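Deviations from the work plan: none for this task. Representative record:
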Amino acid sequence: MRRLRVFKKLVLDSFDILTKGAQKYHLWMAFLTATMLTGMYCYSIQLEQGLSVTGMTDRVSWGLYISNFTFLVGVAAAAVMLILPTYVLKDLDFKQPVLIGEGLAVAALLMCLAFVIADMGGPSVLWHMIPGVGVFNFPSSLLTWDVLVLNGYLFLNVSIPFYILFRHYQGKEALSKVYVPGVLLSVFWAIGIHLVTAFLYQGLQARPFWNNALLGPRFLASAFAAGPALIILILAVIRSQTSFKIADKTLHKIALLVAVAAQINLIMLASELFKEFYAPTHHSESATYLFFGLHGKNALLPWIWTAIPLNVLATLVLTFHKLRIKLPILYGACFVLFVAIWIEKGFGLIVPGFIPGPYGKIAEYLPTGIEVGVTLGIWAMGAFVFTMLARTAIAIETGEISYKR
Amino acid sequence: MDSENKKWFSIPLSKIKEQVKASCNCGKTSGGCSSHQEAEKDKRKDGFEQIFNASMDRRNAFKQLSTSLLLGVGALSSSCSLTADNETKEKAQLNWEEQFKGNYKLMTPAEKKETVERLVRLHQLETASNVQLSSEDAQADVLFGYAFNISKCQGYMDCVNACVKENNQDRNSQMQYIRIHEMKEGAGFNFNESDDNYYHEVPAEGHFYMGTQCFHCENPPCVDVCPVQATWKEPDGIVVIDYDWCVGCRYCMAACPYDGRRFNWSTPKVSASEVNKKQHYLGNRMRKKGVMEKCTFCIQRSRKGMNPACVEACPTGARIFGNLLDPNSALRWVLEHKKVFRLKEDLGTAPKFWYFMD
């Protein structure tokens, strides 16, 4: 009963915090709301007319939605990069960023689920996928694995920060014996969600571009570069806009993680390129299409040739200690790296899987305005959720709100 | 397949013998054969109807009670409204029951009959015309297969047109299950340089033709990946889709190495006069938007002992359809006397679709 009372007070307090703020904050939330509404309008058109309003066809049957889904699973998984040193290695200056990281994971997972639902032809019969109620093709279908691991990860990332914040809200210490087992579990779970998502593609013998053993490890490396890079950028904003204290040392440590992951990612990229182009086979055609175009069709060239140089540049900058410790340069490099991996892991991974088709047909894909609208709407939803979670967490951690009798 | 441990896939041409064996003396793993069957039955409960007939333990009781409560409220509101007339009410009721029915694969014969009746009635209410909707099951000792004579095909595309008409495919998007690839002579089977979308007189000088469609693999990758078992291989070897159970994720499309699957990107349109009214639940009945569909070897025809529409329409006799388990079928003759091959055999999918030349 007492807990319920505290919870009610917490909800009221956080609502209070969320509806008050500087003008900048209100503008930000208004902008996100407008984008979300536009996205919902676009989605309503898609619901009405079907997926024919997207750029997808029978030849390229997954597009922008699934690309973003894949990328965001990586962002969600990257929370683990911060969890490990904080809880397990008892590196205390990470404790606060971890709350931010887990909030980011929650937002990213919600976006993932939204992207999958946006991609579904029949969202009204989605209950067919609920285990026990519908027919759950487990363990045969990797998509059912993904449903399980993503929702499990969502549960972990909601419950752990909630427990910690709920204790802090009441002015109590969070008991490590309660949450550390959960944290350890979520460390393995994070690797699991990304590997399972990679296996979703990797297991298809029909698509040689994906059917390659490096796909899973490469997913992990790029995720552990892009995710923490985003966290650095978010911490930079939080540092400048709120009273939340984040030490420079923390940023430098995360930056080191990003640098290592980005380097490993580049090594794997080199290995992939070598395999595809040293002795090109019939199976290298998708890669040829992606990097050089095939039979005059080259819609992805501008994308991939933006991504690769940006990726190399950012990794180089992050590699040099002298550059990495200068915060403005670090922020710039993180932003560039994030964009590069978004292109490479999204568009650059999903679309070439379908091109050329099973019989060599090259049909190109470009997203339509409606697709872009829905995508932006979902990103805005993620940002909206994250802002709410982060503001509440910061308010509790800084003691701005707390439970008093 | 005779052994569970087999690492490769082959067409079970000796299936007849096995079926006799499977009827009782099961010296396999757990339990006697009667309990064996029961376990299988239990596994087959799902969906709305099936959940309500299921034996219930305490853990499931709450879950199912809450579901039924929700359903009841909805049904009440749709069927007890005072303003709607009888037909609208009936339609709402039928649509409601259709929305929450189970997976066809797991339905009992009675449930199959009910959904067929609902669908026929709904079609009647919506278009004021009657359809014959069949839910005929596979016959025993039948395994369908197909052979394609590359020497004979001239690329007339009569098969494609007959297929579209027979199977009520969306006319707006010009959906076609069959693709005819026009290939240059002397270049071998070079799909990369072939054209599957030609609009000129055929046969074109110096070209040969080759048709592809769903190959009804014995080891279909599309079936494994479906998250809701909305697609499966029937006992007679036809890979089918329950259009009402499909959630439209298109994972099967990504998994198919043969471009055999099609998606309804918008609501399929067939003008009322062109609708083929002889339909099968798993075959050519009207689809809706957002679901997969594909070649079913014209299940509505083949299960009645007829040839698929493409075979019947082919003017050159390039297409041969038949029962692989019947040693006297033309198909078996082809397999035994011609040098046959299948596409992408290295993928281990074991298509039941062979090519050969004279």
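Chain A touches chain B through 48 residues (CB under 8 Å).
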